[in-house]
Amino acid sequence: MQYTMILDDKQIDILFAQYLKEKVEDTKQIEVLANENESLTTEVDRLKAELARTKALNDWFAGQLRLSKVRAFGTSSELSENLAFTFDEAELSQDPSLPEPTIEEVVEKKKPHHPKKKGHREAQLKDLEVKEVTHEIPEAERVCPCCSESMHFIGTEKRHTIEYVPAKFIHLIDLQEKYACKNCQDNDVKTPIIAAKMPKTPIIKSIASASLLAFIIYRKYVEAMPLYRQEVSLERDDLNISRQTMSNWMIKCSEILTPLYERLHDYLIAGDIVRADETVIQVLNEEGRKAQSQSYMWHYGRHLDGISISMFDYQQTRAGENPKNFLKNFTGYIQADAYAAYNCVPNVIISACWAHARRKFHEAIFALPDAARKLGNSNAHLGFDFCNQLYAVEHEVKGKSNAEILSLRQTKSAAILAKFRTWLDEQHSITAPKSQFGMAVNYCINQWDKLIQYINDPRLEIDNNRAERSIRPFCVGRKNWIFANTPSGAKASAILYSIAETAKENKLHPRKYLEYLLNEMCKRTNGEPIDDLLPWSPEVCQIFLENSS
């Protein structure tokens, strides 16, 4: 028997309300679950992005570690070493109040002389002084051991060696003869005393000759030997000259050579191509600045129309006002790196350095994992190859006329540059900008207008390596120089470095040229022309040509 439940309206309403309530609760639960699912999806996406960023950062740090190992332990044929240096000025111990030492103080008792051993090596000997020593057999010994007959001369056998003759210091005494009239003296008539002319010395009332001063400057600024080491070296050669005395001498020599430094500056800005670079120095006693503050040594070079100049300028900052002031009235090209300070110089065109661009791709290669680097087909390798193609054209134009250089650059180099730029734009849109490769791409794109300037003038070089090489003497001596003591000393060092490096640029022996300058400058009056003392002048070239012959 089946029973049928009959519900009244009230019961139906209750059941329907209960159903609706359950339905609403289910809907809310679904919404809650949907929201939770959306939150979880968002969190998963965030974690995926965080993982990707962490992986990218890990790859970047791994690349930097690989690159730092290459910089520290690998070859540096392409990677530029850090040109920053610490700088010890010759004037560290300078004391203007210090009296000049006397000969008695300088020359000490002679020590036993130990001759240097002869060196044995083959070399180019044509420019050396020749000394022949004949080793003979005594006539009594020229007897044949077989038949006891007298032996006759059949020739000589030569052996070539290079002998080192140690430098020596000479105590030079100038005797000035004086004359008076005996007849006038006998008759009580006043008459002048006539004295023989004495050669002037660079520093008045000093025992330092031009040759000694040039020797100290040469060892300090060319051979990177600090004055404290020179002091010890001189003591071994029986001279007692303190570093304080030598410091005073360096300051005075820079003052003597300042007119020549200023004349070099005139010729520098008279050209229309200047190569520039800068590096740091530390100067302890600068007014209003901490001893740890960084100052800067700026370098400017000209290599144009048979004139080669290498100048240094000390400044407290790296601000754009410094090249703007130093290159005042200059118009033309400045070949430099990507440093924005050179943009402050008016009326110039900046020509950037492809060595810097190529170096960045080279760094990107060494930031790659070993497997990718060894394959040699990464984008970093492609960018580096584009740069090498440009350098291959430069190797081809070497030694050619300006017209030939311009023609080859505007055909071959321009075609390579066009392909390179298209490739750079493609890579820029798909490359992480902060990756080592991304930074190389961005550098080229940001500097593109400056990088391509060299193809428009055959006198421009593809890179600024010449300026970097001119700063190299600072880098060679950076472990010797600790700091500069005063701004005036750093400026003096800039002058002496400029003279020495310019001499080298013009194929002159720096020490001999400095000695010549110091001897000649003390004969000149203020304002007297000194162009005949410049290293490319016919007079100087003739003098040093005669001395070398």
Folded structure, characterized:
The chain is an alpha/beta fold and 549 residues long. Among the domains are: 82-112 and 175-351 and 485-549, no CATH class; 354-463. It contains 17 helices and seven strands. The protein has a five-stranded mixed beta sheet. A two-stranded antiparallel sheet has the order 1-2. The radius of gyration is 38 Å and the shape is elongated. The termini are far apart. Mean pLDDT is 83; it is low at 78-92 and 116-123.
Helix content: 40-55%
> How many beta-strand segments?
7
- Series of H and E elements: HHEHEHHHEEEHEEHHHHHHHHHH
What share of the residues does DSSP label as strand, in percent?
5-15%
Structural class: alpha/beta
Largest sheet: 5 strands, mixed
Euclidean distance between termini CA atoms:
143 Å
DSSP helical segment count = 17
Question: How are the strands ordered across the major sheet?
Answer: 5-4-3-6-7
Average predicted local confidence, pLDDT: 83
Tell me the Rg in angstroms.
38 Å
Low-confidence stretches: 78-92, 116-123
Shape descriptor reads: elongated
